[in-house]
Amino acid sequence: MKRAELVDLIRERKSFLCVGLDTDLDKIPQHLQGQPDAAFLFNKAIIDATIDYCVAYKPNLAFYEAMGVEGLRQLKLTTDYLHRLGKKAFLIADAKRGDIGNTSRQYARAFLAPESDFNFDALTIAPYMGEDSVTPFLVYPDKWVVLLALTSNKGAFDFQLTEDKATGRRLFENVLERSRQWGTTENMMYVVGATKAEMLADVRRIVPDSFLLVPGVGAQGGSLEEVCRHGLNKDCGLLVNSSRGIIYASNGTDFADRAAEEARKLQQQMAQWL
Amino acid sequence: MKRAELVDLIRERKSFLCVGLDTDLDKIPQHLQGQPDAAFLFNKAIIDATIDYCVAYKPNLAFYEAMGVEGLRQLKLTTDYLHRLGKKAFLIADAKRGDIGNTSRQYARAFLAPESDFNFDALTIAPYMGEDSVTPFLVYPDKWVVLLALTSNKGAFDFQLTEDKATGRRLFENVLERSRQWGTTENMMYVVGATKAEMLADVRRIVPDSFLLVPGVGAQGGSLEEVCRHGLNKDCGLLVNSSRGIIYASNGTDFADRAAEEARKLQQQMAQWL
Q1: DSSP summary character for residue A119
Q2: Interface membership of A100 toward B (CB under 8 Å)
Q3: Can you tell me the ipTM of this complex?
Q4: How many domains does chain B have?
Q5: B265: annotated active-site residue
């Protein structure tokens, strides 16, 4: 999806919500557990219930890989369904990949290639291995890298905030500064955790025009208001993710209705900021 | 596999070679291409040809994911074969994963859990997200984290060598220093690229007793001699990986024999260092 299409979609749905499809067979409603294709059936119901209130879906690969080969098949059923659906959505594989160039090219093939099993719009990438681990993901037109900058977890403090002696910048700022030269605002976004919203201003100083994918609202404790105050730009420039707060709003037979309700609540708050 | 068993295996086979199963359907011999289970057939032939000369196998997940859901099935056929085989080998999933704690637990289930589809001994992890992204992988007895410290690619220079103002340590040294407190020498190894062999002495100052997984010998240009000179410790402490140099030594019908030959050459050099 091109940036202009994503911005149009945000304006049309008055939402910059991303729904995290972190589907865990131990947490889905009991009446679905044990059914064939249970993960897909759960995802399909969540998608049908939430697509009018969000612009993006983000399955985290870990949850599918935890189900083994079968889990990947369920993920493919899910992305196939999303591609067939009449309504558009931006599809992010939250995979946090990254390897030497030769290998990153294979990951790009796996997730972003139009002929791949999944054909995602975007893939999250860890920056530790530097430029040649990231640029192989930028070869497919209208596909995106979502590079980790400042993550939402406690461990973010271990390395991401260390200050580089040579440049005076913290590691996450170095990542932003260096990677701006690898891609453009049309093919590269950044992960910035909502739990570190006070640093969004620092992020925006370096990448004022880039889209940011913001996890950590909801279960992880981040505030939507803080994120909007510091993160919005003229094209919106935000995709705010909620996973558990939406998809596990109920574990009864009303799970899809409750997910719709939670997604709609967030959408209505977002509409006021747009 | 326990550390003591790995050390015994190294002594028994007089080898610390790890064979990288980076199986690419475009590069395997023509007579296998198009056959059902071609990737597995290729891997099986390589394993049968090399197992007397190596102690470990390291499939890189990217190559299997690039084949889609089917690729993961081929990987499972491969690990199933290795588990069935009478001869022992240490099995490393080169996946470079790492995510928030809740999610890392799922990746651990996917690759390390004894009941998982793959049941690997070890998994490579990227350290960018810090402690709580790494420790969830340390819960399975006799299973290992292989943490990226100093990688073999050019991009390693982008961030891994930046010097932290507070500690005066380079990032990879900070990763080594901090992570020593997360695991032990019995459940944590480090990736240190052979192309940076001159820094192995710096690595050894911080983690003298840890095992190191060393990629980059062969196709990437690293020297086995340099690696041994700076990297060996009293328990050997090294697993040196070669992928393309062994598995693609020939792309004719003699590929397995030529792979055996290349593995044996490395094993013989290694035997002299042990």
Answers
A1: -
A2: yes
A3: 0.96
A4: 1
A5: no
